[in-house]
Amino acid sequence: MADRRNDQQVHQLSQNYNHDAVSNFKRDEESASRESDEIRRKKRIRYLAYFAAFVVFQTGIIVLFSLTVMKIKTPKFRVQSATFETFNVGTATNASFNLRMNAEVGVKNNNFGTYKFQNSTISFFYDGTPIGEAMVPDSKSGWLSTKKLNVAVDLSSNNLTSNSQLENDLNSGVLKLNAQSKLSGKVTLTFMFKKKKSTNMDCTITVGFADRVVRDINCM
């Protein structure tokens, strides 16, 4: 009887041990599974964060590119300097002038692409009256650069209907001329995108009689 009771106790202990072992094993499996799920969740969150950061970075690059490189600005067309080859000026009693002026004009292109423009004409005025014209040949201005062109023009007071203002200017020793023009062309970005752009010239040229030089050039 004692042996049988001992066998039953051993069997019961064995069953309890096996049950505890199985329970512990299941708990370990569940714990490992939870840890694995947590690791995978953290990885997914990290990958999503990386992806979101990449999207924000790419969006910022695109916006910056659109606001700087892809934004097409209007080129500037200006008279930069001028000298005189011929300088004949009358007196206050016989007000007149005949000038041959060599002017350097510039087409400033602030775009990240070339500006190709057509030929044009610069009209010169004195007191609102046309006094001469200069031809500008077709050409192109490189990206972020200024194309410089030299033009020659004969300026004469023969078309003036009244010499009263010219008489006053001769007495003051200063002659104010106005140069106007319109340049039409296209800006080409990345060899694909093209957009038509026109630019206007409106410059006031101040000429000194005594020293026979251009004293000031003011362009709007």
Order of helices and strands: HEEEEEEEHEEE
In terms of DSSP E residues, the strand content is over 45%
**Could you report the average pLDDT, rounded to the nearest whole number?**
83
Low-confidence stretches: none
Reported for the largest beta sheet, the result is:
7 strands, antiparallel
Q: What is the straight-line distance between the termini?
A: 122 Å
What overall geometry do the principal axes of the alpha carbons give? Answer: rod-shaped
Radius of gyration: 43 Å
Number of strands: 10
Please count the helical segments. Answer: 2
Structural class call reads alpha+beta
Helix content: 25-40%
Keywords: Membrane, Transmembrane, Transmembrane helix
Organism: Coffea arabica
Pfam families: LEA_2
Protein name: Late embryogenesis abundant protein At1g64065-like
